[in-house]
Design goal:
This protein is of the alpha/beta class and 92 residues long. It has six helices and four strands. It has one domain: Rhodanese-like domain (Oxidized Rhodanese, domain 1, 3-Layer(aba) Sandwich), CATH 3.40.250.10. A four-stranded parallel sheet has the order 2-1-3-4, with helices on both faces. The model has no long low-confidence stretch (mean pLDDT 96).
Length: 92
């Protein structure tokens, strides 16, 4: 399934890997959980336990790509890099 199909389905969990300071400056997407990139490793079990597609995003897509790479290596099967916050916000 493509990212667009997942977003259209409405059945997904958004995870914002930006720092809390960035959310204050740039805003956030309703329903997105903030797990900064630096916390992804220690919170991996929480993320791996999500039973629907996981869409990760950040400011540009770089950090969310790193988070997705790590989580996939840990067993995440249904993960997507949503890219940058602004682009993803406009798709939802």
């Amino acid at each position: 399934m493509s990212l667009e199909e997942v977003l259209k389905s409405g059945n997904y969990q958004l995870i914002d890997v930006r720092e809390p300071m960035e959310l204050e400056m740039d805003g956030s997407i309703d329903g997105a959980e903030n797990i900064p990139l630096g916390e992804v490793e220690e919170r991996k079990d929480e993320i791996l336990g999500i039973d629907k597609p996981v869409v990760l995003f950040c400011r540009s897509g770089n950090r969310s790509g790193k988070a997705l790479e790590f989580l996939t290596s840990q067993g995440l099967k249904n993960g997507y890099n949503g890219g940058g916050y602004v682009d993803l916000r406009d798709k939802i």
